Amino acid sequence: MMKILGISGVALITLSLSVSSLSAETFRWAGKTDPQTMDPHAVSSAPVLGFLNNIYEGLVRRNKQMKIEASLAESWEPLGLDGWRFNLRKGVKFQDGSDFNAEDVMFSYERAASEESDVRSWFAVVSEVIVQDDYTIDFMTKAPNPLFPNSIANFLIMDKTWTESNDAARPSKEAENFATRNANGTGAFALTSRDPGVRTTLAPYAGWWGEMESNVTEAIYTPIGEASTGIAALLSGEIDMIEPIPLQDVPRMKQRSGFTVHEGVEARVLMFGFGHESNVLKYSNETSDKNPFQDARVRKAIYQAIDVNALTSKVMRGTAAPASQLVSKDMQGYSTSLADRFPLDVEASKKLLAEAGYPNGFSFGLMCPNDRYINDEAICRTTASMLAKIGVEAKLTTMPVRSYWSELRADNFDMYLLGWAPGTFDAEQPLRFLASTPNKEKKLGSWNFGGYSNARVDELLPMIQTEIDDEKRQAMIDEAHKLIQDEVAYIPMYVQPLIWATKDNISLTQRTDNFFILRWVTVN
To answer: Fewest CB atoms less than 10 Å from the CB: which of 187, 199, 392, 424?
Structure first.
């Protein structure tokens, strides 16, 4: 087990004194997915960013109600229409005792916006960053960008000296560097040990500038991939919380004395994506010289063969709501005029396949994770059986999420499962990440694995990003959503639920981004 380096003995001694007024409590929790890395710029996924929001902090953050509030920046204001000025909090120290200032923000920006970073799309709108003094920094944008502060809520700040001195000046998605297993943030909790895939331990950082609402003195996270094992661990007292719990266990957990089920709706839409840019199928038995998914008629046939109501009622046991767009109805920019999905119609699907030249169907490779989303493997298996009814054979491959993203980045799929929750809670973000033509130079389309491309969507995005008139902006978003819907760029299916279970003595806050924030946990 590798210990974190750099947290001073003074900080740890102070920690033991600071909790004397509270009861010392160890909190143990579990989830399906281990955070892939401790590097906040290496992987843009909820398991990583949600976990690291306990250790690292951004200029701004989201509160319990998901509203933006001050964090490492005490305040911010627009610089006319040209950018944003952030006034940094003074007296903040990293967990190794070093001072925080604008140099760390500039370094973190350069690192997060680098080609090696998985979060570089956040900064596609930035033209220049200027350090005015130790506690003032300006982010200049290429055009007016009213959403910019919201868009960087998960831009987490690293200590320049610590990162450079440990040869981690740039993030690494696949290979390890020092920041992969070690951390030095300014957040409420510090990493004390890390054994990837087995156990990660955190402790409160006594030098934190904020107000701690937790009495947890040690927090131990364990990934448990097998649902039944996780429930057994909760019932036996080995852990205090697990998320998510199997949907079939919800009724009995609600009736079980001593436990609480926490239910909510996540901001995440589950969808299927296609390999648009590939000219051939990679995993077909008989169709190896072309790619049927490049034909919108075929994509629509797949869409109309999937019985989403059956998925939500049976596989998801009535906890999920069907979706028609890349965002849910609770997100800013949702298109109410496009709320209806294409109807389930197996005969229409067969007709579309015949028109496209596939009257006997075809086979293809369907790639899915088996530990990332609730019932993800079951969703894919059920979908495969539905597609068989129109003569389309989905050759399913499932794997842990720690391997899944690298397979998608390597284009090892014909069709794939993806869940997306916009960090800004605005439709602009999935348009930028999922629907823009991939462009490394412009930092666009970084999660558009299939390479979907529409020139009009690309044209609309910068206008959506800069328009301050809400009605005009919504009209442009509506147009983009309609193009994506008509072309069946993706198959949106449903909005994922949040279902956690704890012992009755645990108090916590469940946010719609599915980020678990330890500073709001108390053990009673």
So the answer is: 199
H/E segment holding residue 409: helix 401-409
The amino acid at residue 498 is L
By DSSP bridging, strand 363-369 and strand 415-420 are: parallel
Amino acid identity, position 240:
D
| Cross-strand pairs, 241 | 29, 502
pLDDT recorded at residue 24 = 60
> Is pLDDT above 50 for 84?
yes
Residues in the chain: 524
SS3 188: coil
d(CA 162, CA 96) in angstroms, rounded, equals 9
pLDDT at 64 exceeding the cut of 90: yes
What's the confidence (pLDDT) of residue 439? 93
SS3 271: strand
Cβ(303)–Cβ(489) below 8 Å: no
Query: Alpha-carbon distance 419 to 266, whole Å?
Result: 11
Q: What is the pTM of this model?
A: 0.81
Q: Phi and psi at residue 174, in whole multiples of 5°?
A: -105, -55
Please say whether the beta carbons of 223 and 233 come within 8 A: no
How buried is 343 (Cβ within 10 angstroms: 0-12 exposed, 13-18 middle, 19+ buried)? exposed
Q: Cβ of 255: how many Cβ atoms within 10 Å?
A: 9
Q: What residues contact 35, with CB distance under 8 A and at least 6 apart?
A: 47, 48, 50, 51, 52, 200
Q: Tell me: the pLDDT tens digits for 169-194?
A: 999 887 899 999 999 999 999 999 99
CA 357 from centre of chain? 38
Q: How far apart are CA 404 and CA 449, in angstroms?
A: 12
Query: Taking phi first (over 0 means left), then psi (-120 to 50 degrees means alpha), and beta for anything else, what does residue 344 get?
Result: beta
pLDDT at 173: 80
- CA dist., res. 491 & res. 26, Å (int): 43
- Nearest-angstrom CA–CA distance, 329 and 512: 13
Considering only CA atoms, give the Rg of the chain: 23
Structure tokens at 20: 């004397």
Closest CA to 48 of 415, 412, 423: 423
Residues 235, 241, 242, 248, Cα dihedral to 10°: 50
Q: Is the pLDDT of residue 43 over 50?
A: yes
What per-residue confidence (pLDDT) applies to 23?
A: 55
Please provide the distance, in angstroms rounded to a whole number, between the alpha carbons at the two ends of the chain: 30
Beta bridge partners of 414: none
Calculate helix-pair angle for 455-466, 470-486, nearest 10 degrees: 160
Report pLDDT for 227.
82
**Smallest Cα–Cα separation from 55: which of 398, 449, 522, 515?**
515
Nearest partner of 188 among 5, 29, 423, 15, judged by Cα: 15
Report percent pLDDT > 90 for the chain.
84
Check pLDDT > 60 for residue 17.
Answer: no
**Which amino acid is residue 424, in one-letter code?**
T
Helices (H) and strands (E) in the chain, counts: 16, 20
Tell me the pLDDT of the chain averaged across its residues. 92
Mean pLDDT of 108-120: 95
